[in-house]
Design a protein that fits this description.
This protein has 147 residues and is of the alpha+beta class. It has a single domain, classed as Nuclear Transport Factor 2, Chain: A (Roll). It has helices spanning 10-30, 33-39, 57-62; strands at 40-48, 55-56, 70-84, 88-100, 107-120, 123-133, 139-140. Mean pLDDT is 87; it is low at 1-7 and 139-147.
C-alpha cells in the first residue's frame, strides 16, 4: 500500500487538495453544472449512505441542477487530508450547510463526508465520495442565520 506524504512538499499537496474540496462546494453553491461535471472522473461513483445505493457521475451532476435545494451557506472542517504517491488524495471532513428548497424554508444540515481524488494532468478529479447527513441533521433556520 502506498505511503502518505511521499512528495518533497506534502503540506503543499494537502493544501492544494483541501482547496479543491472547497472549490467543488463553491461550484455546487453556484450550480455550475458544466464545471462540476468536468471535476468528476468519468468513472466516478459515490454514495450518500442515506440512499439505498451508490450513484454515478450523471446522478452527482444532477444533484446540483436548478431543481435541487439551493446551497446558501456552508462551513467545512477538515479531519484528515492525505496525498498518496502524489496522485491519489483522500479527504475526510465534517460539514454544516444551509440549504433552501424552492418555495421552502432554509434548513441547516450537518454531516460527515469522505472524498477520493486522483490527480491527472495536474488536476484533482473526484473519483468517489461516501458519507451522510447526521441523523436528525436537518433543522429549519430562521432570521439572520439563514442568510
Amino acid at each position: 500500500m502506498p505511503r502518505p506524504h511521499s512528495s518533497p512538499n506534502p503540506a503543499a499537496e494537502q493544501r492544494e487538495l483541501w482547496q479543491r474540496v472547497n472549490e467543488l462546494w463553491e461550484l455546487s453553491a453556484k450550480k455550475d453544472v458544466a464545471r462540476i461535471r468536468d471535476s468528476l472522473h468519468p468513472a466516478y461513483m459515490g454514495w450518500d449512505m442515506s440512499a439505498p445505493l451508490p450513484h454515478d457521475r450523471d446522478a452527482a451532476v444532477h444533484s446540483v441542477t436548478s431543481a435541487s435545494p439551493k446551497l446558501t451557506a456552508y462551513s467545512l472542517v477538515p479531519l484528515s487530508v492525505r496525498v498518496y504517491e502524489r496522485s491519489v488524495g483522500v479527504v475526510h471532513y465534517r460539514y454544516q450547510a444551509t440549504v433552501e428548497p424552492e418555495g421552502g424554508n432554509p434548513m441547516q444540515v450537518t454531516g460527515s463526508w469522505t472524498e477520493v481524488y486522483v490527480k491527472q494532468e495536474n488536476r484533482w478529479l473526484m473519483v468517489a465520495v461516501s458519507g451522510r447527513p447526521n441523523p436528525n441533521g436537518g433543522t429549519h433556520v430562521s432570521g439572520p442565520a439563514a442568510a
